[in-house]
Amino acid sequence: MRDYLGLAEQAEMLVRGEVSAVELVEHSLARIAAGDELGAFRVVRAEAALAEAAQADKRLRDGERLPLLGVPVAIKDDTDLAGETTPFAVIADHRPATRDAEQVRRLRAAGAIIMGKTTTCEIGLWPFSESPGYGCARNPWNPDHTPGGSSGGSAAAVAAGMVAAAVGSDGAGSIRIPAAWTGLVGIKPQRGRVSGFPQRDPFNGITVWGPLARTVGDAALLLDVLTGCHPEDVYRLDAPGTPFAAAATRDPGRLRIALSFRTAFGVSGRLDPQIRLAVERLARRLTDLGHKVFPADPDYGLIGLGLIPRGTSGVADWLDSMRDPVPEARTLVEARIGRLVGRRLLPLARRMDPGLRRRVGRIFQYADVVLTPTTARLPLKVGAFDGAGYHKTQSGVAAACPYAWTWNVLGWPGVNVPAGFSSSGLPIGAQLLGHDSDEATLISLAAQLEKAEGWADRHPAYAPLSSPRP
After folding, report:
1. Within a 10 A sphere around the Cβ of 167, how many other Cβ atoms?
2. Record's family (predicted)?
3. Which of 196, 297, 372, 415 has the CB geometry, 3.0–4.6 Å to 442, for a possible disulfide?
């Protein structure tokens, strides 16, 4: 079995009868076991996945065709999977979910086999995936470093070839940051594109679910599968007229691209020089591809006032929904802020939305896409914030990751693309940021970049064997 088969590639091989779903699941399980030290998975559904694979093989033999029938994928541990708990990395008296979340229902409807639930941090708060109760995810490019967070386990699983693609969630960059730090494509879709049900208004509108994959085509295919609303969702979008997978095969045309290194007001703007050079190199590549690239900054205004009430009250809501939680002290502080201040300021945050969108959206009067770094720092060391209090952790991660969260407040789409490597071999990412509901343009542009850059063929030097080590 060849390693690093893509999502679409696996689906096509299954239809042609070149491989069975059982073989794909066995290969995935072997790589998960061999890469156990990466801590990518909290739960591995070995027995259930093999049984589902056997059923998928029968369905394929009977002529059934679905987009991902028999293909292994992974989901993040903030997502309900019937029969499994959803601790979101917090120690508590958790009970198994009785129903699948809407994303899981759609994955199953497309025929995908869920290999397990991936490691995260407590309530998705930080750009690392470590917690006292549920372990630590490590970066396949260098296990001394984090794969990012909070979808770090999903990123590690994909980068290490355990699965071809995985689902993450993004409330302040939590798909794009781990994608940047593991050399992947990560798509934060438009708010309302992918249902979070049974969460009707996840983190008060800032959190969305989306794909992490090694190629743009695979990420777009997974986004097509995930796309859709539940009647009880607060935010609901109509289905796009053209599948996102088709956008990944389309020439983007000549685009106007604003190159920006500016961060929102009040956030550190100190950028690692290697990241700046990598993003500038990518800008030159885009120019060579025929696009007009020029320096210009969005006017963010007081956009932070749209994030803090939503995020802090969202953490409080998660903790309040748990039975006898025992979170870290810094998580408790965030929840306390949410209860005392965040919930009171939520109405103000929501009232600010139209004005913020108008203000930031002015850049799209003369640009089609905004290009920025995804992070300001290279991947953090594992344990960099072990034992740190709330203020030290919050200020440290805000300085490391000041670029992604603004688009969560706006609700607009963003895509991380690989931008190269540091001198020590750590991945660097860049963001393509789009206007309201314009995922298709970002996907088309990212696919063009992928063809020119060739990042899909780059894999970590650390790579689990296809069978467990002796």
Report:
1. 30
2. Belongs to the amidase family.
3. 415
* SS3 of residue 136 by DSSP: strand
d(CA 338, CA 317) in angstroms, rounded, equals: 8
Q: pLDDT digit of tens for each residue in the chain (470 aa)?
A: 799 999 999 999 999 999 999 999 999 999 999 999 999 999 999 999 999 999 999 999 999 999 999 999 999 999 999 999 999 999 999 999 999 999 999 999 999 999 999 999 999 999 999 999 999 999 999 999 999 999 999 999 999 999 999 999 999 999 999 999 999 999 999 999 999 999 999 999 999 999 999 999 999 999 999 999 999 999 999 888 899 999 999 999 999 999 999 999 767 669 999 999 999 999 999 999 999 999 999 999 999 999 999 999 999 999 999 999 999 999 999 999 999 999 999 999 999 999 999 999 999 999 999 999 999 999 999 999 999 999 999 999 999 999 999 999 999 999 999 999 999 999 999 999 999 999 999 999 999 999 999 999 999 976 554 443 33
**Catalytic member of 20, 28, 131, 150:** 150
Contact criterion met (CB below 8 Å) for 4 and 161: yes
- DSSP string computed for 370-420: EEEES-SSPPPBTTTTTT--HHHHHHHHHHH--SSTHHHHHT--EEEEEEE
Q: Measure the N-to-C terminal CA separation of the chain; round to a whole number of Å.
A: 19
76 belongs to the catalytic site = yes
Count of beta carbons in the 10 Å neighbourhood of residue 65: 11
**Distance of alpha carbon 155 from alpha carbon 130, whole angstroms:** 14
Q: What share of the chain is helix, strand, coil (3-state, %, to 5)?
A: 40, 15, 45
CB 437 within 8 A of CB 357: no
Contact 99, 198 (CB under 8 A): yes
Q: Which residue has the tokens 């009868």?
A: 17
| Active-site annotation holder among 169, 174, 260, 444 | 174
